[in-house]
Amino acid sequence: MPELTHLNKSGEAEMVDVSAKQDSVRIALAESLVILTPDILQLLRDSDIPKGRCPCDRKNRGDPGSKKMFGAHSTLPPSSLTKVSVDLQIESDLVRIQATCKTTGKTGVEMEALTAVSVAALTIYDMCKALDKSIEIKSTRLLKKIRREIRRLECRKVNTIRILFFGKLADLVTEPEFQQQIESGTLVSDVYEKLAQQYPLEPLAQQPNIKVAINQQLSGWDQSLSPGDELAFLPPVTGG
């Protein structure tokens, strides 16, 4: 039977000793949902909440909470977060909150990601509670947890390509630049779909505006790759 790792021999809660672990790149993606009435959702879209502006299409609503996770939970080792990204999206009957936390260290950051979405959800609750007492926060959960050993970039090898991520996409992978082995003739779309299974990247069907470049030239998703190529993924360009 599995045992709880945060209990000592006396049954008391304690911090797990992670000193023997090697540092690695760690990413966690968490989600929380806030169920609201159509009227409140429209007020959020219009930024017309009586208690103040609640910009649900903007970021960083849960960042401070994630950074204070260590002090809030006695069994957690401190983590030095290198990236926190909180996205809030208004849907037909709810606000969907997703947080990505990233660090390089000996322990994961799933608790920080869960804290970030929880703080963001409570922020929305506090902003809207005067309008509706039946607001529901639900489905707070960890969506994905990634751990990757730190390694130095090696010299270009036969049957490998160099992959680069830029902008927001770079925040979702353990390293913005790495090498990957491929077979000659592999399509750009095949490489992305494989990466989307390893990292919290949206499926290609949901990311039609991502740009790709091969050897610093804009290309298409159906372009075939050859060993030694440089493949870059660029986020959609927004704004004027």
Write the layout of secondary structure elements.
Layout: E1 24-35, H1 38-46, H2 63-67, H3 69-72, E2 81-90, E3 94-105, H4 110-128, E4 136-149, E5 160-165, E6 177-181, H5 188-198, E7 211-214, E8 217-219, E9 230-234
Helix-strand category: alpha+beta
What order do the helices and strands follow? EHHHEEHEEEHEEE
Which outline best applies?
flat
| DSSP summary, beta strand count | 9
As a percent range, the share of strand residues is 25-35%
Helix share bin? 10-25%
Main β-sheet, spatial strand arrangement? 6-5-9-7-8
Q: Kindly state the mean pLDDT as a whole number?
A: 77
Rg over CA atoms, rounded to whole Å, is 21 Å
Q: How far apart are the termini? A: 58 Å
Unreliably modeled segments: 57-62, 65-75, 152-157
Number of helices, where a helix is a run of at least 4 consecutive DSSP H or I residues? 5
User: Major beta sheet, specifics?
Assistant: 5 strands, mixed
Describe this structure in words.
This protein is of the alpha+beta class and 240 residues long. It contains 5 helices and 9 strands. The strands form 2 sheets. The protein has a 5-stranded mixed sheet with strand order 6-5-9-7-8, with no helix packed on it. It has a 4-stranded antiparallel sheet with strand order 2-3-1-4.
